[in-house]
Amino acid sequence: DGGITQSPKYLFRKEGQNVTLSCEQNLNHDAMYWYRQDPGQGLRLIYYSQIVNDFQKGDIAEGYSVSREKKESFPLTVTSAQKNPTAFYLCASSIAGTNYGYTFGSGTRLTVV
Amino acid sequence: EDQVTQSPEALRLQEGESSSLNCSYTVSGLRGLFWYRQDPGKGPEFLFTLYSAGEEKEKERLKATLTKKESFLHITAPKPEDSATYLCAVTTGGYNKLIFGAGTRLAVHP
Fold first, then answer.
1. Residues of B in contact with A27 (CB under 8 A)
2. What are the Cα distances from residue B102, in Å, to A84, A93, B45, B65, B88?
3. Which residues 53-72 of chain A have a CB within 8 Å of chain B?
4. With contacts defined as CB-CB under 8 Å, which chain A residues touch B49?
5. What is the Cα B10 distance to its own chain's centre?
6. Would the pLDDT of B93 be above 80?
7. CB–CB of A109 and B41 under 8 A?
8. Which of A104, A106, A108, A111 has the highest number of chain B CBs within 10 A, making it the mutation to test binding with B?
9. B53-67 pLDDT per residue, tens
10. Which residues, in sequence order, are CB contacts of A44 under 8 Å at separation 6+?
């Protein structure tokens, strides 16, 4: 079955450490997205990519980095520059263009310890 | 600035007690409005897409409607398994960026 796989489900980060969240899709979607979800707030866009080897910053990109070397993969790195990284991270994909909804992964919960 | 507001923040219903969730939006040129369901600790699951005022979509006990300023998600005779957070999102075109509301947490009690 086609879908989006995020791993790991839970991740713990020490202060000053970089961590990478994995996102893989087999839906043949061109566009992929990373969102952050905090309690009581809507999903906020971190980065998005419409084609391989190209990506753009979203509304809250500071402290994060991404790569898009393959159509199927869009990993997110949370760097030590992100001062409040504890959150639920969601990866999504869609057909490129307008008016299409997203398919979401099951999320990664990141906690700073 | 494009904005999506959902109300109420939380809603508690008895099983069988019908109600509606609201999603109001202020955007420059709506291209589509989306409803998602999210269970705790999971990713959102797509429910409906609405494109123009007057449009309606139905799925089991859920019915979504759209006007020029807001959308409603009507829940008829809800069951405990309908308990979840319901998210509303809009797209205004461009690169298909979805702007999300904060969601409504629905609890249906037997």
1. none
2. 19, 20, 15, 19, 8
3. 56, 58
4. 99, 101
5. 13
6. no
7. yes
8. A104
9. 999 999 999 999 999
10. A35, A36, A37, A38, A58, A59, A60, B100
Rounded CA separation B46/B68 (Å): 22
Tokens of A2: 């086609």
**Tens of pLDDT, residues B10-62:** 999 999 999 999 999 998 888 899 999 999 999 999 999 999 999 999 999 99
CA-to-CA dists, residue B60 to A63, B46, B50, B64, angstroms: 42, 14, 17, 11
Residue of B nearest to A58 (CA): B97
Q: Are A82 and A13 in contact (CB under 8 A)?
A: no
Which of A98, A110, A111 would best serve as a mutation to test chain B binding (most B beta carbons within 10 A)? Answer: A98
Strand order in the sheet with B3-7: B3-7, B19-26, B70-75, B62-66, B56-59
Question: Which residues in chain A have their CB less than 8 angstroms from residue B32's CB?
Answer: 98-101
DSSP A17: -
Candidates A102, A103, A110, A111, partner chain B, best to mutate (most B CBs within 10 A): A102
Burial of B86 from C-beta contacts in 10 A (0-12 / 13-18 / 19+):
buried
